[in-house]
Write a structure and sequence with these properties.
This protein is an alpha/beta fold. It has 13 helices and 13 strands. The strands form 4 sheets. It has a 7-stranded parallel β-sheet with strand order 3-2-1-4-5-6-11, with helices on both faces. It has a two-stranded parallel ribbon with strand order 7-10. Strands 8-13 form a two-stranded parallel ribbon. It binds nicotinamide-adenine-dinucleotide (NAD) and 2'deoxy-thymidine-5'-diphospho-alpha-D-glucose.
Length: 353
């Protein structure tokens, strides 16, 4: 048996591939376009594993995806591939529409053609799992209850609007064509191999480098943080037992204001790797211009996933953030290669000889 993941060279997809190969004997094929966010160095340790295959392709490339599906005959396709950074979507929304909307459409069409031709029981057993975000629900005030699966979609950024559009396509392909789909809507992830353009890895990298720690606006925006391997276990759970056509919210019950997150990281760094001058890392905090249209608060009610599929996160924010800071201190080469752009050479080094 084989599963295909798209976007497996990114942060969450990469962690998912590593986790999968630790826990399963089933082959996993990773299809990734290798945009700036794709980093095969993350998967260096499994590059020679016979149960792992990497294919460089765009999810929107019908011919490439059709050929891969025919060749690998997967029992499931998990779609992690996306443009994922809100700030980039504000500066240049085009790539977000192209990959998240048009790319997902093309992928759905390839998968539908493949699935329609399957014989039973493979046809009934097949799954398409779409990895999405809590940002599709919009923003919450301090008093609002967390997002449930019943919340209406009110996306506010080009990124979240493109993800919302992709969720709607996935839903429609189930209702219209019967494609066996599952969708997960997850809160903010953090952990190893997180690209240092996002808040947590950026703050760790900048702190180490003696650079400013940029806080947008007043720093009181709230995010609900989930350690990435908990997201991976939730996806595996939904893939195994999720009800077809359903959506599942995934979250860590860890609502934190951005400023509090940054203070926590600074305190851990003060302990693990104090600044040479003995001053606290909080000295590097700098308030900068706010993100346009910045959502104030996200919070996920993950009770459906717990009630129906028995999933709960294993990490608290306190345990997860400590592990994360330690990982970045132990893996400075990975971070430095990303910061310098050297990770882009990895493909050449690894696959041409
Ligand atoms: P990421 O940006 O780190 O990785 C995205 C990966 O997709 C990269 O490897 C990139 O090369 C690949 N990719 C981009 N366009 C592609 C295309 N057209 N064809 C094939 N591959 C392509 O993203 P991430 O943070 O790992 O997020 C993965 C998924 O999870 C996304 O769908 C995102 O919307 C969703 N999500 C992320 C978070 C989070 O906190 N990071 C939370 C909830 C949901
Ligand atoms: O909620 C899930 C989403 O979480 C995912 O769908 C996205 O793919 C993922 O990127 C993430 O989006 P956010 O915009 O919440 O993540 P980011 O790390 O960019 O920002 C987290 C918060 O920190 C947000 O309120 C903006 C703020 N921030 C971010 C950066 C990069 C700062 O204050 N300073 C910064 O430099």
């Amino acid at each position: 048996m084989t599963i295909i993941v798209t976007g497996g060279a990114g942060f969450i997809g990469g962690n998912f591939v590593l986790d999968w190969l630790r826990q399963s004997d089933e082959k996993i094929v990773n299809v990734d376009k290798l945009t700036y966010a794709g980093n095969l160095q993350t998967l260096e340790s499994v590059a020679g594993n016979p149960n792992y295959r990497f294919v460089q392709a765009d999810i929107g490339d019908r011919a490439a995806i059709d050929a891969l599906l025919a060749e690998e005959k997967p029992r499931a396709v998990l779609n992690f591939a996306a443009e994922s950074h809100v700030d980039r979507s504000i500066h240049g929304p085009g790539d977000f529409i192209q990959t998240n909307v048009v790319g997902t459409f093309n992928l759905l069409e390839s998968v539908r053609a493949y699935w329609s031709a399957l014989e039973e029981p493979a046809r009934s057993d097949f799954r398409f799992l779409h990895v999405s975000t809590d940002e599709v629900y919009g923003t919450l005030s301090a008093e609002d209850p967390p997002f449930t699966e019943e919340n209406t979609y009110e996306p506010n950024s080009p990124y979240s609007a493109s993800k919302a559009a992709s969720d709607h396509l996935v839903r429609a392909w189930h209702h219209t064509y019967g494609l066996p789909v599952l969708t997960t809507n997850c809160s903010n992830n953090y952990g190893p191999y997180h690209f240092p353009e996002k808040l947590i890895p950026l703050v760790i990298a900048n702190a180490r480098a003696g650079k400013p720690l940029p806080i947008y606006g007043d720093g009181q925006q709230v995010r609900d943080w989930l350690y990435v391997t908990d997201h991976c276990s939730a996806i595996r759970r939904v893939l195994e037992s999720g009800k077809l056509g359903e959506t599942y919210n995934v979250g860590g019950w860890n609502e934190k204001a951005n400023l509090e997150v940054v203070h926590t990281i600074c305190a851990i760094l003060d302990e693990l790797q104090p600044r040479a001058d003995g001053e606290p890392y909080t000295k590097q905090i700098t308030f900068v211009k706010d993100r346009p249209g910045h959502d104030r608060r996200y919070a996920i009610d993950a009770r459906k996933l717990e009630r129906e599929l028995g999933w709960k996160p294993a990490e608290t924010f306190e345990s997860g953030i400590r592990k994360t800071v330690q990982w970045y201190l132990d893996n400075t080469e990975w971070v430095d290669n990303v910061m310098s752009g050297n990770y882009r050479d990895w493909l050449k080094k690894q696959y041409t000889a």
